[in-house]
Amino acid sequence: MMKAGKIVNQLQAAGMKDIAQTVACEHGKNTNNAILKNACNAEFYGPNRGKWLGPFTGEVPAYLTGEFPGDYGWDHIGLSADPETFKRYRETEVIHARFAMLGALGCLFPEILSKYAGVPIAEPVWFKAGSQIFSEGGLDYLGNPNLVHAQSIVAILTFQVILMGTAEAYRVNGGPLAKPEGSDAIYPGGPLDPLGLAKDEGKFSDLKVKEIKNGRLAMTAMLGFYIQALVTGKGPVENWASHLADPSNVNGFAQAYATKFSV
Questions:
Q1: What is the DSSP-derived secondary structure letter of residue 249?
Q2: Which residues in the chain show pLDDT less than 70?
Q3: In sequence order, which residues have a C-beta less than 8 Å from that of residue 247 and are 6 or more positions away?
Q4: With left for phi above 0 and alpha for psi between -120 and 50, is residue 43 left, alpha or beta?
Q5: In sequence order, what are the residues at sequence separation of 6 or more whose Cβ sits closer than 8 angstroms to the Cβ of residue 242?
C-alpha cells in the first residue's frame, strides 16, 4: 500500500489528477468491492462528473455532490438544498420519468402500426383513443379484441387501481433491496427487476443514469405531444410525417398561434 501511495503521489505531481479515481476503480474490480467500483463511473458520478454547461458551468452548489444519478450540478433556485426535499423531488422525478417513457411509447406505437404497418386500429391517435370505451363496440387494444377488450370504464378504473396500488405499495416499502436504515423506494428490485439488472453494482449505477436521462427526454417529449395535440389536433406521428413532407411550411415557427380547438 505504501508503494502504491508513493506511485499515486508521483503521478498526481506529474499532472495526472484522476489517478486516485482510476486506482480505486481498478482495485474495486479486482476485489469485487461495490463501493470502490463506483469510482469507475467517473463520467456521471463524483466531483469530476460532467456538468450541465460543461467547462462553463462555474461553481456547483455544495449539496450537489454527484452522489446520485443525473446530478449535473444545476439547481440555480435551490430546490434541492434541503435533504428531505431533495429526496422527495428525486423520487418524484424518477417515477414521472418512468411513466413518461411508457406514455411516449404508448402514444407512438399504435399510430405507427396504423400508418406504416396497416394494422386496423379504430382510433390510433393517443388523445382520442380513450373515447372508444364509450362507443357501442367498446375499445379493442391495438384493434385486436383478443388482447384487451374494454366496455366498462368502472371496471378499467378498478383494475388499474388494484394493479397500481399493489405495485406502488411494494415499491414504497422497498422490496428486497430495502436497507436497514430505510427502504429503497426508487429501486425496490425483486419481482420488479425480473432481469436481475441490479445484481452488478457497477452496471446498475450506469443504468440508473441511462434511465433518468431517457426519462427526462421522455417527459420533454410528452410535453411536446400535449402542445402538438392542442395546436394541430393530430398525433405525433402524423405531425412528424407532415413536417417531413413540407418542412418549410409545416413546423413550429410557421404554424398559427391559435389552437385547433379554439373558437
A1: T
A2: 1-29, 32-41, 174-184, 254-263
A3: none
A4: alpha
A5: 234, 250
